[in-house]
Amino acid sequence: MKAILHILEHDLRNFFRYKWWLVGLISMNLADLFIMAIVYNRMISSDVAKQITSYFNFFAPGLTVTGLFASAFMIGREINMERRREIHHYMLSLPMTRLELAIGRVLSGGLRGMIYMSPLLLTCFVFLGFPTVAQLLIILIVLFFLAIGISGLSIAIAVSTSSLEKFITARGLVYYTLFFCSSVFYPLSLIQDLGREGKFPAILVNLAEINPLSNASDMIRSFLLGTPPFSPNMILSVIVFSTIFTLVAAFAYIEIIERT
Amino acid sequence: MRAIWFVSQIALFGLIASRMMSVPNYFQYYVAGLSVMTLYSAAIFIGFDIYEEAEHGVFEYLLSLPVSRRQLVLGRSIGGGLRSFIYVGPLIGVSLYVIGAINPLNFLVALFALFLFSFGVSGMSITIAVMIKSSDRFDIFMGVLDALIVRLSTAMYPLAIVQSANPLYGGVASFNPITFAADLFRWGTGLETIITLDNPLIPLLGVIAFFAVFTFVGVIIYEKHIEGGGWQ
């Protein structure tokens, strides 16, 4: 346990070294909310307006989840860099088990995501209204699971790619597929309608439905806006995603990092 | 990476978001704006090259070449603009295919404006890179600038809607070089019914002014900052 705490401390210190970078990233996220979402408010069709009322309100929870995703994914870039510069040999020489090292890295990625996401979630509460204590707890727990899953996914990609270019390309593919095939930017019903009309591949419609980013955004919306209706599947999807990628990341980290 | 971003923006975001909007032909509108956004972000990259050259000692080599400082910065901004144009060219081709209609004469004017726009963005990137002197700060600054300059433009939404959403946003968007370039590109491709561009001469003059200011301001700042290791 102590070893895991050391890893958490190491990664959190690294995270705060980029504080100005984080300020820049948060300001970009806020520009999305306070400029793009406000203008989109004026552009949405009457059919969509009936579903979501206001694009600003609809987008705020989605933005929180995208912020969480981007920051939790940052751990992968560091691990990829450690691998390329062979710093992982030093990490492997530390007096801790491989499992502690791997769990520490996954957890720290998740924690970093939660720290970064906090001001965005608070902004969301300020404009959309505060949830009840029970709802707040559920939101925080689900987002923490999501952050761990994303961190695991990022670590799995980082240790499986040998160069920064390959990592960045793989990250781009994952980012854009998960972001755009989700209900972060638009209601899920639009993607489902396109699928029914044969204008969107069924596999991408299914991905959007089980996408943890969709489910986490919709869960926050269901608590703060009352729509879409809450479903336990929203939580289940995030937990399944998190469990799979935490295990995959731990396994990949231990196996691949020892081999290289 | 940028190609993945471009294609996913068209095939996923553009396609789905256009279903959400009341603006007619929003998909084509968005694809045209996306081409200009991509051109902008590709032209910005010359600034990062300046830091890399400084780090590897290439800067001293460039300064020792038998060319004036003025020629050097002018060559760099035109080179940066051309490079980004070549890079983004196939993506613009994809967007033309998606948009469909094209007016050849207007399109040539729009293409000329896009060239000037990319040279201007390269000049701006070089100017800011030489002034900031830290690659980390440059990265952050350009990220924030990108967020503001793209969102406060007509790359993603028509000017009338930006103005009705917030007059301040509308004011900034009216004088934004991305607005000028995006509106001219749409005019050149025959999408002017959506953009209600009264007079294409105004954005064209705007792009020329943007190019001139950043190229010549860039020359002056570059000259002032690089002598005697001042860029370090």
Strand content of chain B: under 5%
Unreliable sequence segments of chain B: none
Largest sheet of chain B: none
Number of helices of chain B: 12
SSE run of chain A: HHHHHHHHHHHH
Largest interface: A-B, 39 and 36 residues
Helix content of chain A: over 70%
By secondary-structure content and strand pairing, the structural class of chain B works out as mainly alpha
Q: How many domains would you count in the coordinates of chain A?
A: 1
End-to-end distance of chain B, in Å? 30 Å
Largest sheet of chain A: none
Number of helices of chain A: 12
How many domains would you count in the coordinates of chain B?
A: 1
Shape of chain B: elongated
| Count of beta strands of chain B | 0
Helical residue percent band of chain B: over 70%
C-alpha Rg of chain B, in Å? Answer: 18 Å
Q: What general form of chain A does the structure show?
A: globular
Detail the topology: elements first, then pairings:
The complex is a heterodimer of chains A (260) and B (232).
Chain A: H1 2-17, H2 19-41, H3 46-52, H4 55-84, H5 88-93, H6 98-128, H7 133-160, H8 164-180, H9 188-196, H10 202-210, H11 212-224, H12 232-259
Helix pairs in contact in A: 1-6, 2-4, 4-6, 4-7, 4-8, 4-11, 6-7, 6-12, 7-11, 7-12, 9-10, 11-12
Chain B: H1 2-20, H2 26-44, H3 46-56, H4 58-63, H5 69-99, H6 104-132, H7 135-151, H8 159-165, H9 167-174, H10 177-189, H11 192-195, H12 201-226
Helix pairs in contact in B: 1-2, 2-5, 2-6, 2-10, 3-6, 5-6, 5-12, 6-7, 6-10, 6-12, 8-9, 10-12
